C-alpha cells in the first residue's frame, strides 16, 4: 500500500527494513524481559552467565546470549557511541564478555582489587573494596569495556552482596559445597536458594541429632558403670 501523498516513495524494501527494525526491537524486548526489570536482576543474570560452563553452551545458546548482552547493555543506560556501535556483539565478542565476567566475579569473590585486562598497565584498580563502608568502590580509568558498562552501577550498590553458596551439594563428598555465585537478599544470607537452605538445615539437624545421641549413649554407659559398682 502506498502511504505517501506525493506518489509512492515508500518502497517494499523500506517496509521490510521497517519490519526488521520492529522485530529487532521486539526481540530485544523479549530478552529484556528474560533478564528482568530491576538492576539487581541484571546482576543475577550476569552472575548466571559467568557461571555457565563454556562446554555446555551451544551455538543456539550463543545467539540468545548475544541478544541478552545487547538488552543488558541497553538497560545499563549508556548512549555513548563506543557502546552503541557494538550493541549486538558477535559470538566472538559475546564469548570474551562471558570469560571477562567470570574473571571479574572470581576476583571480586576473592576480595581482590579488580583490574580488567585493558587496565593492566594502570597502577590503580578499577574496583576496590572499602572496609569502612563494606562496599565496593569504582575508580574511573578512561576507556570502558562492555563488562565495565554492565557492572559499573551494579557493583558499588550490590557488589558486597555477591556470595558463594555455602550449602553442602545435593551429591558430593563431605566438605564440598554448592559453590553457586549469587546475590544475597540480605547480607547474612549464605545460601543461594531455598533448596540449598533446606539441605543445609537438614544436614545441620542430622549432625546435631547424631551428637546428641552420642552424648546420651555416653551418659547411659557412665550411669551403668557407676550403678554396677
Ligand atoms: Zn546453593
Describe the overall structure.
The chain has about 230 residues and is mainly alpha-helical. It has 2 domains: about 35-160, no CATH class; about 165-215, no CATH class. It has helices at about 10-35, 40-50, 60-75, 80-85, 90-110, 145-150, 155-160, 195-229, and strands at about 125-130, 135-140, 160-165, 180-185. A two-stranded antiparallel ribbon has the order 1-2. A two-stranded antiparallel ribbon has the order 3-4. A hairpin with a 4-residue loop joins strand 1 (about 125-130) and strand 2 (about 135-140). Helix 1 (about 10-35) crosses helix 3 (about 60-75) and helix 2 packs across helix 5. It is elongated and about 100 Å long. The N and C termini lie far apart (about 110 Å). Mean pLDDT is about 80; it is low at about 1-10 and about 80-85. Bound molecules: zinc ion (ZN).
Sheet having the most strands: 2 strands, antiparallel
Strand order in the sheet with the most strands: 1-2
Count structural domains. 2
Number of strands: 4
Shape from CA axes? elongated
As a percent range, the share of helical residues equals 40-55%
Class by alpha and beta content: mainly alpha
Straight-line distance between termini? 109 Å
Report strand %: 5-15%
Instruction: Output mean pLDDT.
Output: 82
| H and E order | HHHHHEEHHEEH
Layout of secondary structure:
Layout: H1 12-35, H2 39-51, H3 59-75, H4 81-85, H5 91-109, E1 127-130, E2 135-138, H6 146-151, H7 154-158, E3 162-164, E4 181-183, H8 194-228
Antiparallel strand pairs: 1-2, 3-4
Helix pairs in contact: 1-3, 2-5
This protein binds zinc ion.
